[in-house]
Amino acid sequence: METYTTVKGQVVIPIKLRRKYGIEAGTKIVWIDTGDSIVMRPITKEYLRTLRGSLKGSGALDVLMEERRKDTEKGK
């Protein structure tokens, strides 16, 4: 599939891809520069559901709680 950019840099996403990935008007899109290409990732409800539990067991909660504790101490 090919699309072209407008003078303003806008890109039209083909209907097949919008339907496949659940992209609707107002869907947030994240652009990722990988160094040699650009990846476009729509942030849809379905995508967010796939992230549930992805940090489980990684210690991310402990890091967050420690950062919050430090911020609280700074505020005193």
How would you describe what is shown here?
- This protein has helices at 15-21, 45-51, 60-75; strands at residues 28-33, 38-43.
- With 76 residues, it is α+β, with helices and mostly antiparallel strands.
- The protein has a domain at 25-75.
- The termini are far apart.
- The mean pLDDT is 87.
In which range does the helix fraction lie? 25-40%
Strand content: 15-25%
Q: Could you tell me how far the N terminus lies from the C terminus, measured between alpha carbons in angstroms?
A: 57 Å
Q: Main sheet: which strands, in order across?
A: 1-2
Low-confidence stretches: none
- What is the string of SSEs from the N terminus onward? HEEHH
Number of distinct helices? 3
Mean pLDDT comes to 87
Global outline: elongated
Kindly name the structural category: alpha+beta
Provide the gyration radius in Å.
19 Å
Report on the biggest sheet: 2 strands, antiparallel
The count of β-strands is: 2
Topology:
Elements (H helix, E strand, L loop, with lengths): L14 H7 L6 E6 L4 E6 L1 H7 L8 H16 L1
Antiparallel strand pairs: 1-2
